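Input record (one chain):
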Amino acid sequence: MPEQQRMLTAERERRILELLRRASVMKVGELAEALGVSVATVRRDLQGLHERGLLQRVRGGATMHPLTRVEPLFRDKQTLHTEAKRLIAATALELVDDHDHIYLDGGSTVLMLARMLDARTNLTVVTNSLTAAEALMGSRHRLVMIGGEVRALSRSLVGPLTAATIANLHVNKAFMGTIGFTLTGGMTTTDPGEAFAKEQIMQRANQVILLADSSKLGVPSFARSGSIEDVDVLITEEVDPNFRAELESLGIQLILAGNAPAWPGASPTRATAVSGVSMVNVPTEDKQQGLE
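The corresponding structure, as predicted from the sequence alone:
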């Protein structure tokens, strides 16, 4: 298939996901009209998105709201909510100090943070993420990989074999990703082995910082990977006022990411606490080009 056609398909898929996030459920004909393409083209796009776990097919159309969150392929995660993830990662960077000992979980948002760490010096970075480790391989930071079973879907090391390494480590801050996050169920993911590794590391961190764009909030997945009490800080780009009030009542600090600065050489963020909730805004930039 020519490169131009692939780009057109990717753009249609992005717009389909945006439309479904707004309308919850849409019929094939409605999507075809909104996109200005044939019904057959929409059906092909929907099937492809369904097979990659990005939506659910229903009779005559599709929905973005399954009962539980499914996990897309890692390469597809990196194309979803990229601007929100970039803002969240840039805001998380402001919580990293020079000489820090930090943990980087798997996931596309945490990977964005890993790629920004050249802005800090002399870090010790512990991770189970193969992609984060690859991003940091050429850096001057000390890099520690925990052992475990390779999980190809998330490109991370998971399962009981991670326990031996984690038990002998302690970090200042653990930057965690998640598939779903609810006030009743806490953090959830699709794989029990991955949930195990997450739970282990959060017990070895002074502070647990959850990086989750708004699409993760209020939707559970299969396996609990951390209770609501495990989370100290949630960084997201927007949140429902009722959800925010509940977070505040539970003592969880909420940081809303603003427009992120350019990297490297970014200027620092400014956080202002309002009734226990931190609101962060950072300078704007032209949207980054490339994969994320």
